[in-house]
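The instructor's notes for this session suggest beginning with a concrete chain rather than abstract definitions. Hand out the sequence below and ask the class to guess, before any prediction is shown, which regions might be ordered.
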Amino acid sequence: MDRTRFFVRVSAIYALIGSFMGSHMAGGGGSQLSAVHAHILVVGWLSLFAFAIFYKVFSIPKTSKLASFHVWSSFIGVFGLTTGMWLYNTQPIEGIETLNLIFFIVGGTILLIAFVCFAIMAFVHGKFISEE
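After discussion, reveal the predicted structure:
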C-alpha cells in the first residue's frame, strides 16, 4: 500500500466534507456543528495530510508493522471520532444515545493511540528521519 497516496486521498475527502460543512453553516447561519466541522478539518484533513508528508519525506520502511498499525489506527480513529462526534451532536436516531457516545469515545481513543504510535515511530525509526 502506498501510505502517502492513501493519506492524501483520505485527507482530501475530509477537506471536502469539512469545507462543505463550513459553507453550509455560514450560509444557514447556524454554528451548532462547529466542533464537528473543526475536528473534521483538524484531525481529518490536517493530521492525515501531515502524516502523508511524513511518509513521503522520510523513508520509513514499507515493511514496518508499527507504521502499518499507525496508518490503520489513524484512519479508523479519525473516522470514529468525527462520525461519533456528529452522531453525538445530532442524535439522528432516537434511543441509541449511548451507542453514539461509545462510538465517539472509542474513535477518539483509537486516534489517541495512533498519535502515541506516531510518537513512538519517530524514535524507533529515528535513523530514517534526518535533513540529509
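Then share the key points. The two ends are 25 Å apart (CA to CA). Residues 3-128 form one domain.
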